[in-house]
Amino acid sequence: MDIQFKDVGYKYKGIKVNYDALNHINLTLDEKDEFVAIIGHTGSGKSTLVQHMNALLLPTSGTLNVLGQILPPQKNEKINHLRQKVGLVFQFPEYQLFEETILKDIMFGPKNFKSTEQEALEKAKKAATIVGITEELYEQSPFRISGGQMRRVAIAGILAMEPKILVLDEPTRGLDPRGRKDLMKIFKELHEVEHKSIVLISHDMDVVSEYAKRVIVLEEGEIVFDGKKEDLFEHPNFESFHLDLPTPLRILKHLEKEINLPYQPKYDFDSLLQYLKEVGYE
Ligand SMILES: Nc1ncnc2c1ncn2[C@@H]1O[C@H](COP(=O)(O)OP(=O)(O)OP(=O)(O)O)[C@@H](O)[C@H]1O
Prior knowledge:
The chain has 282 residues and is of the alpha/beta class. It is built from 10 helices and 10 strands. The longest helix is centred in the middle third of the chain and has 18 residues, at 177-194.
């Protein structure tokens, strides 16, 4: 089972004008083992695209198959179950916390999807452990912890619903480098250990380069690249996408020019440092 977009378009309907936010989207995402980044400039349609994956938005043209459910649905057909199957973490998810304790907040999702109190409690504790929220915090107010911890609580609330696919809309936005790394480590583990498919919107090319395996580039509501990240960053016409190169690649290209260091692409800082050590340049 997977997610399949077939010639999907989405039009925001205004009072006076309509706006075509997505056009002719054809795309397949596997239910397991994907780590795909969706990138593109502001307003290119990234959020609109991912909101189709859990039926928050429905295509205004074309069709979509999400884990066997065809969208748009037939009249009276219920699609609410997709909110549980595809977990969507919005930008700044901490703004959506509302319960009086952290544990209650994390339990809200599973209870909403008909888990018993006991099941919801177990799922919430498991999700809290994954994001590093310890037992001492369970009974505290979610509004009295740090911003980074609040974000973890909000993410735990999505994980507690045990979604098959996790969709993250700029999850590291506003975090410092340490917070960014700690959070990405959680998603990396979910992907590597549980083989969960992760869909990540990010403006941070260093994050994309280090974690994603596949990259989809959107421009004005259309897909202009869909493939392996290596093929994007080493694309002969990379400039035509008007994207920044990730820092490790930028450093390597600079060193190639300045000191004739043979260019060997490295997609994260650890691999870059390892390579520089191997060639005796530290
Ligand atoms: N509710 C809405 N009504 C009308 N137009 C909208 C609405 N939401 C988004 N748009 C427009 O649709 C286009 C795509 O928006 P979207 O938020 O999907 O882009 P994005 O790539 O996620 O942008 P960003 O990187 O800024 O989050 C933009 O031009 C935006 O102005």
